[in-house]
Design a protein that fits this description.
globular, 18% strand, five-stranded parallel β-sheet, 5 helices
């Protein structure tokens, strides 16, 4: 069973994504901030990550940089309410697989998770993260 990590400071959003993903046949790991996400990524080695941009403790962009340092093959989709062009470009340069705008409906969550797993299975790498 493919494993997706959901990282968002909103318990409501984590519960929504987790419910959709489990309904789609995924195993789910949750984290409420970037620091917790790094720890859980090491422990659980998920196939993909849905990562919120705006979070306390460690925001999504810094978390993305750290995840890519930890695992150059990490597959991460950044999720944001306000995806400015600079955030999107920075995230994609660092190795994000996708940048998505909230809100996400259940079918979009499943589609993105499947795409992350497929990319993970193909195991591409990125050396472009400069952070």
């Amino acid at each position: 069973m493919a494993k997706i990590m959901v990282v968002d400071d909103s318990a409501f959003i984590r519960a929504k994504y987790t419910k959709a993903l489990k309904g789609g046949g995924f195993d789910v790991v949750e984290a409420s901030n970037g620091a917790e996400a790094l720890e859980k990524y090491r422990q659980h080695e998920p196939d993909g990550v849905l990562l919120d941009v705006n979070m306390p403790v460690m925001d999504g962009i810094i978390t993305l940089h750290e995840l890519m340092r930890l695992d150059r093959t990490a597959r991460v989709a950044l999720v944001t309410c306000a995806g400015t062009q600079s955030i999107v470009l920075s995230a994609l340069r660092c190795g994000a697989s996708d940048c998505l705008n909230k809100p996400l409906d259940d079918s979009r969550i499943i589609t993105i998770a499947n795409r992350l797993v497929l990319q993970h299975d193909m195991a591409g790498t990125s050396d472009t993260c400069a952070g």
